[in-house]
Amino acid sequence: SLDWTSYSDLPAIYEFVNEIAATYPNLVTVTSTGQSYLGNDMPILKISTGGSGKNAIFAEGGIHAREWISPAFVTWLIRELVENYAAHPQYVDNIDWYIMPVLNPDGYTYTFSPTGDRLWRKNRAPNSGVCVGTDLNRNFDYYWNTGGSTSIECGETYHGGAAFSQVEARNVRDAMLSVANQTKVYFSFHSYGQYWLTPWGYTSALPDDYQDLYDLAQSAVDKLTAVEGTPYTIGTSTNLLGLASGCSDDWAKGGAGIKYSYTVEMRDTGRFGFQLPADQILANNLEVWEGVKVVAEAVMLM
Ligand code: 0X9
Ligand code: ZN
């Protein structure tokens, strides 16, 4: 199993996923959403006590390769829901969870490789020229390529040759669409900056129901910060970070119709940035879990 005192590479994460599914077959089902460009599997876990028509939460991590705290949190979320089910059964009894821990397995692997790059962000699919990779979080088909991304293949925010040109983005799209009618919340976990972000990222305009998204985010951040004082800022992506189109959260809301779509930028605020020391994994996970619980409580009542 994982212990969250160090960061885990892709094989360790997949071993954890398969082990937890084998140990708790009554709570966890693992299926494949497909393969990445380089042939890595892209599993999704359904955590559920069965039944039908339950509200769902869809959570994913690892869309940006270098943001190691993201899969580290998402795997923790899985562990908390499953291994610690008895401590708070309501979160699984009343909600179906769909969780994808690593949306960019090729990039993630590259950040662990001695011949790779610890700070790689994009996927690892080749382009027409020498530069490899598309920013998967600019490749979604909601106001794709309308600002805050680049057509330059070498760029860090290269949006790809077309919306959903990348197989990893298509895999998560299809997984989301297949459960969108029951899904109330979409979570995309990233780092860093300590922001709890709402749509939109493609425009500075607010969603019609922004107040609903803001209010729930505020309740979540209140509990998160109460743990040990870590401040988080709430607002839309455009207004806090600047324009960025083709992101998964905008597509989740505007394309898949999931009302509460959040991108959570976890620790820190830049001292270590993407290279958050492993001795902060636990504290990060404990506080973010408090926020996620608040959202889960709300989902039960939706
Ligand atoms: O730019 C991004 O993709 C995210 N920030 S990160 O530093 N982790 O790369 C923020 C995405 C926020 N959502 C939208 N802009 N829609
Ligand atoms: Zn990111």
TrEMBL record:
Transmembrane segments: none annotated. Belongs to the peptidase M14 family. It comes from the Eukaryota. One of its GO terms (molecular function) is zinc ion binding. It comes from Daphnia magna. Its cofactor is Zn(2+). Keywords: Carboxypeptidase, Disulfide bond, Hydrolase, Metal-binding, Metalloprotease, Protease, Signal, Zinc. This is Zinc carboxypeptidase A 1. One of its GO terms (biological process) is proteolysis. One of its GO terms (cellular component) is extracellular space. The active site is at 265 (proton donor/acceptor).
